[in-house]
Specification:
Helices cover about 45% and strands about 10% of the residues. It has about 375 residues and is of the alpha/beta class. Bound molecules: thiamine diphosphate and magnesium ion. Magnesium ion binds next to strand 4.
């Protein structure tokens, strides 16, 4: 009996050593600077959204506002391996993806405040962030609406003979939209350079995904013969590695790819909704936030590997908090759009050479 127990303990010890070695090898694939940069990114997103939450509560931000708190590793992990000129398009829970794509906290915060100098001129708000310079094409409020647009972006990339790719984020609810299926089909037929990333946070507003689907999300790609995989979305390195390898496959001419990222939202659906309710319990949310916070998971991993000290963490946090405070202060001081701005960018028109332009500003 004693021998059996010893053998069992020995087996567990071997497994633990192997897991430890695998975890260390995974970290070794990144420079310490790259790892700290990923942590810094996620902290920036968290502090930015906490600030937005605060500003919303006192009426400085109006309209809809959906926080990504709890899902930061998806934005950080999926966007960091991309090139600057790769496109990102997404739904309405998109503050973090915009920041990940290199849009400045000032530009994004001013947009949330509805100010003229915001990234969409103050007329888009939280759900409609946009930056041509950063190849960030929104910010879309219609569930699944961005999916066929992503197929169009992929088609344009191919038509121009570029080696860029497009990453299209969507929520779990989007995979039940007809437009999703049409876009998947055409993307496969035309071999479009798009990674479709489904952020499965388990709920579409108050509806659990398990109540509205007979299959796992990742299986949806099989019908269109698009290679599909899934990763644990609270581990930023898993998301990073998956996206990096899919991006490489696409640039090698592989056609579209599909990635389900399993994650969880720690806040209510939008700022107007309670954190929990009849669709999920307070205990469920608290347990997830306690045990599966992507920032805590990554921070602890870096502590354990002695790649980060408490002092370094505090310094990073202070720096990003400063950036966020500056963005809010700046947004506050910016002018509101003018009355004329109301009529700008509403209709596109033709100029004398028959080219489309917007309100006198010709587009390249
Ligand atoms: C076509 C359409 N139907 C319904 C809505 C209302 N609506 C807004 S968000 C949402 C849930 C979407 O959930 P999911 O795609 O999982 O994204 P998450 O909010 O979890 O990020 C719904 C039904 C909408 N915006 N568009
Ligand atoms: Mg969802």
């Amino acid at each position: 009996m004693a021998d059996a127990k010893t053998a069992e303990q020995e087996k567990e010890a071997v497994e633990a050593r192997e897991a430890q070695a695998a975890a260390e090898a995974e970290l070794d694939a990144f420079s310490p600077e790259a790892l700290r940069k990923l942590l810094r990114e996620m902290l920036l997103y968290r502090r930015f959204e906490e600030k937005a939450e605060e500003a919303y509560a006192i009426g400085k931000i109006g309209g809809f506002c959906h926080l990504h708190i709890g899902q930061e590793a998806v934005a950080a992990g999926a966007i960091a391996p991309l090139r600057d000129d790769d496109y990102v398009i997404t739904a309405y829970r998109e503050h973090t993806q915009a920041l990940a794509k290199g849009m400045s906290p000032r530009d994004v915060m001013a947009e949330l405040y509805g100010k003229k100098t915001g990234c969409s001129g103050g007329k888009g708000g939280s759900m409609h962030l946009f930056s041509v310079d950063r190849a960030f094409l929104g910010g879309h409020g219609i569930v699944g609406g961005q999916v066929p647009l992503a197929a169009g972006i992929g088609w344009a990339i191919k038509y121009r003979g570029e080696d860029r790719i497009c990453v299209c984020f969507m929520g779990d609810a989007a995979v039940n939209q007809g437009a999703f299926h049409e876009a998947m089909n055409m993307s496969a037929v035309w071999e479009l350079p798009v990674i479709y990333v489904v952020e499965n946070n388990e709920y579409g507003m108050g509806t659990a995904f398990s109540r509205v689907s007979a299959t796992d999300i990742v299986q949806r790609s099989c019908a269109y013969d698009i290679p599909g995989s899934w990763v644990y979305g609270q581990d930023v390195l898993q998301v990073y590695k998956a996206t990096e390898s899919l991006a490489g496959e696409i640039r090698d001419g592989g056609g579209p790819r599909f990635l389900e990222v399993r994650t969880y939202r720690f806040k209510g659906h939008s700022m107007s909704d309670p954190v929990s309710g009849t669709y999920r319990s307070k205990d469920e949310v608290e347990e997830k936030a306690d045990r599966e916070d992507p920032i805590k998971i990554f921070r602890d991993r870096l502590f354990e590997a002695e790649l980060l000290t408490q002092e370094e963490l505090e310094a990073i946090d202070e720096e990003v908090q400063g950036e966020v405070d500056d963005a809010a202060q700046w947004a506050e001081e910016q002018p509101a759009p003018t009355e004329e701005d109301l009529y700008a960018h509403v209709y596109s028109q033709m100029n004398e050479s028959g080219r489309l332009f917007l309100d006198g500003r010709e587009r390249g």
